[in-house]
Amino acid sequence: MANEETRPRVGGMHWPYAVQRLGRQISAFVRRDIRSNEFAQIIICGVWGGIIGAIVAAMRGTVLLLHRLDFAISGHQLLSTGIGVDRIRILIVPALGGLLLGGVAVLTRRFRATDIVDPVEANALYGGRMSLWDSLRLAGATMVSNASGASLGMEAGYTQLGSGIFSTVGDYFRMRRADMRVFVTAGAAAAIAAAFNAPLAGTFYGYELILGSYAPAALAPVALAAVCGALVQRGLGDTQPLFAIPGTTPLELRSYAIFAVMGIASALIAILSMMAVTWVERGMRHVRLVDWARPCIGGVLLSAVAFSFPQVLGSGHGGIQFHFDNHWTLEALVVLLAAKIFASAVSVGSGFRGGLFSSSLFLGCIFGAVCAQLAAHFDPAFLSQRPAFLLVGMGAVAAGIIGSPFTMVFLVLEATGDFPVTIGVLMSVIMSATIVRLTFGYSFATWRFHVRGLGLKGAHDIGWIADMTVARLMRSDPKLAATDMVLRALREKYPPGSVARVFAVAPDGHYAGWLDMAEVHDPQIDEVVDQGVVADLVRQPEIYLLPSENVRTALARFEEAQTESLPVLSARADPRVIGYMTEAYAMRRYMQELERRRSAELGEQNLFSLGKPPPG
């Protein structure tokens, strides 16, 4: 074996080390090139979008297999059709699944006690940075929950894993904050496109819910990821849409008026569904259950409902197609609607993992069937338009709960290709989404943030505001004066025009207020400058800034105090002056950052990064 002296050398180094160094240099070059190359980023999104499509197909296939094993489903039926499901297992599987989920949660919290950051929160607060391990953990918990029959969809697991993978890829290439947010959006879009075989719906899901805007710079990477995700999923054998409707549905003008009214009622159902989750959570806390037992108790409650209405189990994909193909009585539909709302609320509120995307579509489908039955009671001719009623109900209820109206419109359009029905869905979606926004003010995702105490109303990037702290913006050379200093001495220390404001400190070093030096040099107080002290002229000792506060809080404090500068204190418990900040500088930096963010969203940053002058 060759020793260190006999190994061949390259440029004075042993060849293994030379190869490693060359590899690191190539890797650094590739990362740097891709970070500034928008076209390369688009290609990466397309490639990884296809990979996400394959992962989604594998996850869905695994859950379907587990459904057949867990509930002894006969034939090729889906769980939410309620056909061929073993009734005894309905009473057992949800509780056992909840017990497993609770036990796993206890174990994982011992090693990682932090909350899982979802794509919306990551884009809003953390510049698109997500933990891949946390994403895998949530995806696994979602699969366990869905395999146990929880009345939830797999979309939360799909989007979490898709966004987590894209965030990891973006972090590897050291993407800018704006590009990282686009990557996270592309991962979620690819997942939804593959889950529903609907690339347009996946794309707009990313824009509306994950990114929070229709940014031109995000168009190509997000859309390409969604298209590639859907195409790979189709290539793996599943070419069918979420629901199949043969032909087109004839509509009358009066039907559109009914659809608008359905939008109003859908908003009420959406708000009720979101509030019901909070009511269940409060009930669980009220009975003082330990955290690990809550999913098990939720599984027992779910079984009690599912024993009579097995269609509440699972995401609802099979149930949607079932109700397109079968007609139930009005009474049965109303009871099933209430049962599904309760089952979904219990599933989320007790700790099962999953989303309400598919569940809200099934709720809307049932609600549409109820409306069709009611309309047919007055005029049987409406029965021929029943598929349109179901589609309108699906879009309106889901838009109210999920908060992504165009996603629902395009989902119906891609599934049916029926433009008259899509117009009806659009009308109902507008009514539902607008009423929910103006009255309730939250989608399901933002409502969950509100319950947790996070003031997020969407995925708009506000994390940079938290990063722009007073500590970063303040000046560290404040002009100080002791409260017992004689005014004449203060005049001599700071002659006219040398400084505009001085901060007073007590003998113990604590902040005591500020002085306007124009007032100190006012000739009208010449007679008292030998007797007066600094403490006689101090103002607003209760208004100040702290280093950890952000620029928006600072600007609000300036507005409250009606002053041009404020001191920065070390802490409330130890109020020593460590600096000061002016309103003009804070506003200028704030507006500069806003303009930079706007340029990044419009895709203008690469123009300057490439060294090219702006047009004109």
Which parts are unreliable, with pLDDT below 50 for 5 consecutive residues or more?
605-616
Q: Strand fraction band?
A: under 5%
The separation of the N and C termini measures 67 Å
Q: Provide the gyration radius in Å.
A: 31 Å
Q: Round the mean pLDDT to the nearest integer and report it.
A: 86
Structural class, by secondary structure, is: mainly alpha
Sequence of strands across the biggest β-sheet: 3-4-5
Helix run count: 25
Based on DSSP secondary structure assignment, what is the total number of beta strands?
7
Structure description:
The protein has 616 residues and is mainly alpha-helical. Helix content is 63%, strand content 5%. The strands form 3 sheets. It has a 3-stranded mixed sheet with strand order 3-4-5. It has a two-stranded antiparallel sheet with strand order 1-2. A two-stranded antiparallel sheet has the order 6-7. Strand 6 and strand 7 form a beta hairpin. Helix 7 packs parallel to helix 9 and helix 10 packs across helix 17. The longest helix has 34 residues. The C terminus is likely disordered.
Summary, kept brief:
With 616 residues, the protein is mainly α. Helix content is 63%, strand content 5%.
Give a quick set of tags describing it:
two-stranded antiparallel sheet; disordered C terminus; 25 helices; elongated; mainly alpha; 616 residues; 3-stranded mixed beta sheet; 5% strand
Which SSEs are present, and which pair or pack?
Blueprint: E1 9-10, E2 13-14, H1 15-35, H2 38-71, H3 87-111, H4 119-125, H5 132-147, H6 155-172, H7 177-196, H8 199-211, H9 216-235, H10 253-286, H11 294-306, H12 317-325, H13 330-349, H14 357-378, H15 386-402, H16 405-416, H17 419-440, H18 444-452, H19 463-467, H20 470-473, E3 480-482, H21 487-493, E4 501-505, E5 511-516, H22 517-520, H23 551-561, E6 565-569, E7 577-582, H24 583-601, H25 605-609
Parallel strand pairs: 3-4
Antiparallel strand pairs: 1-2, 4-5, 6-7
Helix pairs in contact: 2-5, 2-6, 2-7, 2-9, 3-5, 3-11, 5-6, 6-7, 7-8, 7-9, 8-9, 8-16, 10-13, 10-15, 10-17, 11-13, 12-14, 13-14, 14-15, 15-16, 15-17, 16-17, 23-24
